[in-house]
Amino acid sequence: MALTFPRRAGRRRRLRRFTRRDVAVLGLLLGIPVLLDIAIVWGPTLASIGLSFTAWDGIGDIHWVGLDNYKNLADNYPPFWPAVRHNVMWLLFLGLIATPFGLFLAVLIDRGVRFSRFYQSVLYMPVVLSLAIVGFMAQLILGTDQGVVNTILNNHDDPIDWLGNSHLNIWMMMIAASWRHVGYVMILYLAGLKSVDPQLKEAAAIDGANERQTFFRVVFPTMRPVNVIVGVITVIEALRAFDIVYAVNKGRNGLELLSVLITDNIIGEASRIGFGSAIAVVLLVVSLGFIVTFLVQELRGARDR
Question: What stretches pass through the bilayer (predicted)?
């Protein structure tokens, strides 16, 4: 007796071949963004890396100098190490003070305090301002001539030079930049807190954990993706700070940053494009070091989960 097998209910779908029109559309949708990314981001990046090993004023011939730019940067360029120190201070201030304060505000608003919508709008409002505008506002508030702070303190005879004193101005600028950074961090953490499963909090409460233990042992680890995003944004904001200090005193007299040194050397009177590119490469390596570390940690955490 011959065995019969039931026929399959459905036939296998044939793979649809792409027509020339499909290939053209995909080429436009994918090719144009890739070309723009190469032309705007990776092209200048690779060019800066190549130019960092040369001496060029932007007009004459390009001369290969090897690692001389980096050696001169570390040994014979006095503003370099103060700028590195200021960038590290900027990073620590945003990472250890501004970012935790933004998280604290997000937790308060998430708990449903009165007028939370109003607080959320007011705290987020500085995010829409550029750091250059924040710098101009800092001049109006902290200036020696009719500045708001000195007027309140009634220091007309001997006003405090908040922006001219090299021991004070870097701190004033970090506080002004944090005013904008806190609102951004608050919104990101608010979104993360809304996505946490309430059952996790209930289970922690049943196990006897108080609110503080529930947050640090359950809620905060659950927001790992948000923590990574906030960490990357904090590093980027700290290392790319430029316009706020340039708006105050062109990044001098205690406000030196690596981004300011790059601008001064590439488009300044010296036109040392190779030397300025070396500073840009240093900033690029430091930025990638932090960002890659954050991303690797996130990928490991996702794999473990």
Answer: 21-42, 88-109, 121-142, 170-191, 273-296
- Report yes or no: 279 and 265 within 8 Å, Cβ to Cβ: yes
Q: In this structure, what token pair is assigned to residue 62?
A: 């390009």
Tokens 């829409």 sit at which residue?
Answer: 128
- Token match 């932090």: residue? 290
Kindly tell me if the per-residue pLDDT of 111 is higher than 90.
no
**Which tens digit of pLDDT belongs to each residue from 243-266?**
899 888 888 888 999 999 998 888
Q: Which two tokens stand for residue 36?
A: 């723009």
Beta strands at 54-55 and 63-64: parallel, antiparallel or unpaired: antiparallel
Specify the pTM. Answer: 0.82
Numbers of helices and strands, H then E, in the chain: 16, 2
- Which contacts (CB < 8 Å, 24+ apart) does range 120-128 have? 120/186, 120/187, 120/190, 123/182, 123/183, 123/186, 124/183, 124/184, 124/186, 124/187, 125/183, 126/179, 126/180, 126/183, 127/180, 127/183, 127/184, 127/187
